[in-house]
Amino acid sequence: MALTTQTNIQYLKGVGEKRAVLLGKLGIHTVGDLLFHFPRDYLDLSAPLEIAAAPLAEPCPVRATLTAKSGEQRIRKGLSVFKLEAEDHSGHLSVTIFNSKYTVDSLQIGRDYIFYGKVGGTLLRREMASPAIYPGQGQASQILAIYPQTAGVNSKYLRNCVAQALELCEPPEDPLPPDVLKTYGFGNIADVLRDIHLPPTLPRAHAARRRFIFQELLVFSCAISILGMENQVKTIRAMSPKPLDAYYNALPYSLTQAQMRCIGEAVADMCRGVPMNRLLQGDVGSGKTAVAAACAYFAFLSGAQSAVMAPTEILAEQHYATFSGMLEHLGVRCALLTGSTKGLEKNRIRAALAAGETDLCIGTHALLSDGVEFKNLELVITDEQHRFGVAQRAKLSQKSEEAHVLVMSATPIPRTLSLIIYGDLSLSVLDQLPPGRQPVETLVISSAKRTRALNFIKKALDEGSQAYIVCPLVEQGEIDTGLLPAVECARRLSKKELAGYRVGLLHGKMKAPDKEEAMRKFKSGQWQVLVSTTVVEVGVDVPGATIILIENAERFGLSQLHQLRGRVGRGSKKSYCILVSDARGDAVRSRLGVMKRTNDGFAVAEHDLKLRGPGDFFGHRQHGLPEMKVANLAGDMEVLQIAQDCARQILARDEALGLPEHAALHRQTQAMLEAVGRRPN
Question: Which domains are assigned to the chain?
Answer without folding.
Answer: 1-41+144-170 (1.10.150), 46-138 (2.40.50.140), 245-430 (3.40.50.300), 441-598 (3.40.50.300)
